[in-house]
Amino acid sequence: MATVRVQEAAFDLAAESALLAAGRTDIGGMASFVGLCRADDGLAALTLEHYPGMTERAIAAIAAQAEARWPLTGCTVIHRVGRLPPGEPIVLVLTASSHRAAALESCAFLIDWLKTRAPFWKREEFADGRERWVEAKAEDDAAASRWEAR
Amino acid sequence: MATVRVQEAAFDLAAESALLAAGRTDIGGMASFVGLCRADDGLAALTLEHYPGMTERAIAAIAAQAEARWPLTGCTVIHRVGRLPPGEPIVLVLTASSHRAAALESCAFLIDWLKTRAPFWKREEFADGRERWVEAKAEDDAAASRWEAR
Amino acid sequence: MKILYFAWVRQKVGRAEEAVAPPPEVTTVAALVDWLAAQSPGHADAFANRRTIRCAVNQDFATPDHPVAAGDEIAFFPPVTGG
Amino acid sequence: MKILYFAWVRQKVGRAEEAVAPPPEVTTVAALVDWLAAQSPGHADAFANRRTIRCAVNQDFATPDHPVAAGDEIAFFPPVTGG
């Protein structure tokens, strides 16, 4: 059963890793991905909006898919919402398995599907005062769809 | 230029991540892999032996390959040696890039090549006193060779 | 039924949620969009390009032919951009 | 030349390193292995199955036909198992 959280606060990768590993000696590999806010084109901040209730459900469903496809001993997904300046972490995906390939592949799968299947929206705020909603990327759809033929 | 270390001491994923991210706002994703010692078949401990000098050279060459293949803003590889009981972390691979796919793929590449191209050897010590050298796995060669056709 | 709007759909409609009671012939997401688009200039603007709108019915993604009924929670929003 | 042994190769040979001066016809890794295997029962045991032995010359992996010369650092070991 995955740990799923949507929160404004920062997360602690070391603490989350320690939680997944605590008391276990059957983990061969843990993989993590942290997505961060980049300062592209004079970006001052991102504001992340989400759909409370559905977001948690959607992430839990994606995590359940990962757990069905790979033999995981643990899976944690934490996604932040609210206003995040460049350099701030946005999302954490953490997977543990007895086999390294399962940990690495499920981690990549989770972030690809999160990007295309979890109800979050990013608004960009620039130094010159402009604001705009980030548009969905075709490359993200392509990355997500490579997991469908399996 | 990658950070490469071979050491007996444990490593600190959070501190290493913070080092790669410090002062930067161009990182879109950081991927990590931590390999751990499993308690398979009554294993009491692993002892890792290496070839001082060549090991660091070999890891630096593998990291240089990763930096040539993907646009990384940072890359850290830390491999422990000495006696490690089950549950202990053995190896850390950490990559950062403006693009998540580059971070994720280079992290998988690094651990696959480390397993087959860096001079480390594992001796297993069991609760009943038996000892044996771990044999190289065909599946590791297969995992490493998938990066060769690229 | 309860309608929720997110991101620029919310900004164009001018509200985050509303309770509506469409006529009985509104039985699908597509019919609901047609009916909502006629409710105000803001609604019309939000639903002007339907290819850019996504929908969830009771917190699951839904296609235009998905049934809708009184009591449903129905959300409209742009393609998602998290992660 | 300086010879290093690791893992079970080291255990079978009974030492971690040695300095050797093979005859001048020993010009390749393969010839060096033949010559080393004749030095002691431990060496013979270590090199009994050459398919399980890997070699590095001056800290780079080397194949059996790789040249060897006085002054080289040459290491023999099993297939690697780190990570």
Uncertain stretches of 5 or more adjacent residues of chain A:
none
The helix/strand class of chain C is: alpha+beta
Given the structure, what is the number of helices of chain A?
4
Please describe the biggest sheet of chain A, giving its number of strands, its sense, and whether it closes into a barrel. Answer: 4 strands, mixed
Estimate the strand proportion of chain C: 15-25%
**What is the chain-wise order of helices and strands of chain C?**
EHEHHEEE
What distance lies between the first and last C-alpha atoms of chain A, to the nearest angstrom? 22 Å
Strand order of the largest sheet of chain C: 2-1-5-3-4
Estimate what percentage of residues of chain A fall within beta strands.
Answer: 25-35%
Mass-distribution shape of chain A: globular
Domains of chain A, number: 1
Main sheet properties of chain C: 5 strands, mixed
The CATH topology name of chain A reads Aldehyde Oxidoreductase, domain 3
Largest protein interface, residues of each chain? A-B, 32 and 32 residues
Estimated helix fraction of chain A: 25-40%
Number of strands of chain A: 8
Rounded to the nearest angstrom, the radius of gyration of chain C is 12 Å
Which characteristics define this entry?
heterotetramer, A: about 150 residues, alpha+beta, Aldehyde Oxidoreductase, domain 3, four-stranded mixed β-sheet, four-stranded antiparallel β-sheet, 4 helices, about 35% helix, C: about 80 residues, five-stranded mixed β-sheet, 5 strands
Textual characterization of the structure:
- The complex is a heterotetramer, with 2 copies of chain A (150 residues) and 2 copies of chain C (83 residues).
- Chain A has 150 residues and is α+β, with helices and mostly antiparallel strands.
- Chain A has a single domain (3-145), classed as Molybdopterin biosynthesis MoaE subunit (Aldehyde Oxidoreductase, domain 3), CATH 3.90.1170.
- Chain A contains 4 helices and 8 strands.
- Chain A is globular, with a radius of gyration of 16 Å.
- With 83 residues, chain C is an alpha+beta fold.
- Chain C has a domain at 25-77.
- Helix content of chain C is 27%, strand content 23%.
- Chain C has 3 helices and 5 strands.
- Chain C has a 5-stranded mixed β-sheet with strand order 2-1-5-3-4.
- In chain C, a hairpin with a 2-residue loop joins β3 and β4.
- The longest helix of chain C has 9 residues, at 29-37.
- Chain C is globular, with a radius of gyration of 12 Å.
- The mean pLDDT of chain C is 97.
- The A-B interface holds A 12-14, 17, 21, 24-39, 86-87, 98, 100-101, 103-104, 107-108, 111, 143 and B 12-14, 17, 21, 24-39, 86-87, 98, 100-101, 103-104, 107-108, 111, 143.
- β2 (29-36) of chain A pairs antiparallel with β2 (29-36) of chain B.
